[in-house]
Batch of 4 targets.
Target 1
Amino acid sequence: MGLIDELIKFDSQVLPSSFVSIATRIVNNTPTHAAILIRHKSINYLHHFPGQSPPIVEVDFNEDGWYVYKIIDHQKNNCL
């Protein structure tokens, strides 16, 4: 199974209302950016780390081209 099999399009209806995940932006079938995506009570926070300080945080960002790579299992860790 390759990476493409593990990606979930961000605007998918199957995403939970609260989660923490690793995300990537794909343009023309090429990953162009990575971020940490946090959704808490259906509000989205996209954390970018572009090499400057502090990191950029977007609230309810434009989700075009964004895919969720891995949702962290918060049930076991009680982080949300």
Target 2
Amino acid sequence: MTLKVIGAALPRTGTVSLKVALEMLGFGPCYHMSELFMHPEHATILANGLQRPATLKTIFDSYQSTVDYPGSSLWRPLLDQYPEAKVILTRRDPAKWYESVCSTVGKPGHVRMLMQSPLAPVALQLPAFGDEPGNPEATMRYFEEYGDAVKAEVPAKQLLVFKVQDGWEPLCAFLGVPVPDQPFPRLNDRNSMQSEGDLENLTFEQVQGLIRSANLL
């Protein structure tokens, strides 16, 4: 098995929908943040991924695709290790994206839980939302600059800029697979895992339980 698809987009850009879609198309298993929660032993390798990119293969050789954090923060070394992989950049309105981050994974309690969990080395080494996550203008600017960097550095024939609203056709054409006779998955992990209020106070173990119950693995 080898990594065939790299989701380079930041979290909260339809990455859960894309994960499920890729697995439906035969590009599973797909590495998502939910995998890291269930495999905290990956934390040290991922945290050192920018400095030791070759070690990333010890994780990603077991997956055909990756979306969401922390793979999104490692798209450059992953592309170096898997130069034939195709890259997908999911996009959404920056203001709506920032609101979504603030109401879910950017909540202070959730961030605090991560920093007190086995995943802290990853969160410290690979900031998911730039250097000023509490500054709306700076974070939205980071979102735009991040996307611009992906589009500038990935060869055009190897990159798909995608919105989940686009559905199956552009995704399947890019990956060279038939369009399934099923609706495109339109999932919102804000609703599928927990309410916004709960996210503020969940423990690491509770998040693991919710990932299991939400069938995100």
Target 3
Amino acid sequence: MSGRLPSIEACALLAAGLLSIGLRPAIATDLAVPAAPAVPEIVTDGIWGAIAFAPGTGRHGFFWGASTKPEAEAIALNHCANAGGQDCRVVSIFRNDRHGYIVDEAGQNAPRHCGALAVSQPAGPPAARWGSASASTRVDAETLALQRCGLPGACVIREWVCT
């Protein structure tokens, strides 16, 4: 090999020959790194709410009106702990967009404005069964929480909150 680069005419002839037999010559754009797929923007503004629950003690706490998800979770956990919950965890998180249209973490358009917690009766610790849910309406959140509690007629709504 001579170390000389082929002329533009030679490259054009080679490309024409490849095209004539059905092959497409590689071009610089073929070597470019493909663009990453578009990731939907996660909207985090709005009015956040959360319900925390301690299954071992049956205690709970909630908060609504936070500007961020972590704030709502932290305050709900704090209320649960102040109520005597020793194993509190966030069981429902929800948000109401201030502007009426959101896309949540799952790419869904429907905001979840309400959360509910259902526990089996009697409510003493530890809670035998419980369920929580968030939904667009209070009725839907309560219905789902009762279903997740799993004891028809024995579970009651302990807490609900809407933003």
Target 4
Amino acid sequence: MCDRVVASSVQNFGYNITAENVAAQQWRFLDEIPLEAHQNFRGSIRVVRGDYLQASDINVQVIIRSTHEDDIKNVVLSRSQLQLGIEYDFTVQEDMCTDIRVLVSFRPWPKRTLRLFELRSTFLDLAFDGNLEWEINNLVTHTSHGVTEYFGSQLRDPLITHNISSTSLAGSISGYTTPLMATSRSGTRLVLLEWA
């Protein structure tokens, strides 16, 4: 987080997932932030369980804070029906700090299934809460230099994932999640994926 913030911006985006349209059962966050911007730019993306009363299946709140008022204009968000993108037109300046916090909220009811949920970032940290209640067939995360954390839930309304692909070039990946529900002769059991 930046010290001495003088300017901030909050933007909200809503996305709906329809069960009838298979092509629309996906969502992506992609950033085009150059690696050289790490001196001035930082932040995180967190995926959480939203509110039953939120207007969209997926609500995305983007909070941008900066120590320079003009630098907020350098953060450009681009929205399409199935994704949110971010670009940063940076200028290297030692005393400048810009921070972005992206909060992705899944509405817990009605429960939705995503064919693909993808987060790709240069160096933003990625975090997943475990009690999202949704089912994701393919969960893809990549951060070149950030930290990826999964906070799994074994008991209440878990996020069910069938295929997980998490990569990081120089950051760390940790936590646990429920990759799938498996049925055995003795009934249903949770299969946990754990990282040390």
